[in-house]
């Protein structure tokens, strides 16, 4: 089993989902549940296409972490 890392971004029409390790796997849904389901479906289709063409699939299991940074506003000095 390979695990891929999903990234979800809130957009005007709902959510956009994309795999971090495989950016070509990208979809949208009206809510997070729909987006998640559509992303799984898109991943399954991409795996099938890669297998049929003999292409190597990207490695999964990425480590994702958030990094905080304080951003100064224009006109502020350090």
From TrEMBL:
InterPro entries, per the entry: TTHA0281-like, TTHA1013/TTHA0281-like
Domain of life: Bacteria
Gene3D superfamilies: 3.30.160.250
Pfam family, one: UPF0150
SUPFAM superfamilies linked: TTHA1013/TTHA0281-like
Protein's UniProt name: Type II toxin-antitoxin system HicB family antitoxin
Organism: Desulfosarcina ovata subsp. ovata
């Amino acid at each position: 089993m390979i695990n891929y890392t999903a990234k979800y971004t809130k957009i005007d029409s709902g959510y956009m989902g994309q795999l971090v390790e495989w950016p070509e796997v990208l979809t949208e849904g009206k809510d997070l549940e729909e987006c998640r389901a559509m992303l799984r479906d898109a991943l399954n289709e991409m795996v099938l296409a890669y297998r049929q063409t003999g292409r190597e699939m990207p490695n999964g299991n990425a480590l994702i972490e958030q990094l905080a940074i304080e951003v100064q506003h224009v006109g502020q000095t350090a």
